[in-house]
Amino acid sequence: MENPVKINTSDAHGVAVAFLVRRGMSEEHSRMVADHLIYAMLAGHAYAGLPRLIPMAERLRKTGTGGTIRTVKETDNSALIDGANVNGYVTSVIAMKKAMALAKASGVGIVGVNNSWFSGLLRYYVEPAANEGFIAIHAANSTARVAPHGGADSLLGTNPIAFAFPGERSPLVIDFATSQLMWGDVIYHGQLGKPLPSDCAVDPQGRRTTDPAAALAGAILGWGGARGYSVSLVVQALGILAGSDPIIGEAGKWGYLFITINPELLMPVDEFKQRIGVLRSSIESSRPIEGGGPVRVPGSATDARLAEGRARGWIEIEEEIYRRLTVE
């Protein structure tokens, strides 16, 4: 990182809140967004942290801060929420809390959110549910920026999906996108003036490119070949169930689906946690391949970065991005 600015997390949180409030977002919503952005920075995902405020400001300028979030349909174990064009960092927290309340009452909570945008790191929403003893699943489709497998046209979102399972020591959290790069990561490379990794994007003519601007005008490529593409379609369909447009344009409706399950439906939660702990320790104590490092479960590196970052109490951000956040 060139010319980094070191700033403690409390001050960084204040920078984010002030930036959003200046652009019309309520202080309550600004604080919710800032909480998420600081979490992302501590987790080592800088592209999903404070730099995300810059494209967020552009979206706020174009479409405003949104209206009143409301539940449009509800049963004993489900709810559908109209996000009222409010940022997804806010609506997703509300939706997961609702899903947890439904699961606490009925054993299962299924919540869909639409008419919302930008929701950041999905593990941010499922991890608290697992901390409360629930299994959590979250899928989110988004603006069409990713080409289908073998194609060159932007038809799919980056379409991440996340799972969290309560465990003895800590939750097992698995969170991954179905694209080679997240849209925010492409923007972040552009902000830093750095090329993209190879074989991750195509330009408007369908030619491979490492130029962030050309990739934004063209398409990001999918992850995982035909299998990753299949998972992306699953996420797209789950988003449609939550109320999204089939193909989401710049002003289209994103769809977020949240599912929470109380393990007590099938076994005592403490027994489930113990079994997840055995699974985790078995993997982590298993033999690596010749010349390889320790075998890890997904999400463990992020867990370690979060613990280290919280103990450290500060983050680093590029000087030019910090200037834009505090001067503009």
UniProtKB/TrEMBL annotation:
InterPro entries in UniProt:
Mal/L-sulf/L-lact_DH-like_ah (IPR043144), Mal/L-sulf/L-lact_DH-like_NADP (IPR043143), Mal/L-sulfo/L-lacto_DH-like_sf (IPR036111), Malate/L-lactate_DH-like (IPR003767)
Claim: Oxidoreductase is one of the keywords in the record: yes
Q: Does the keyword S-adenosyl-L-methionine apply?
A: no
- Extract the SUPFAM superfamilies matched here: L-sulfolactate dehydrogenase-like (SSF89733)
Q: What domain of life is recorded for the organism? A: Bacteria
Q: Which UniProt keywords apply?
A: Oxidoreductase
Give the family, as the similarity comment puts it: Belongs to the LDH2/MDH2 oxidoreductase family.
Protein name, as recorded: Ldh family oxidoreductase
What organism, scientifically named, is this protein from?
A: Paraburkholderia podalyriae
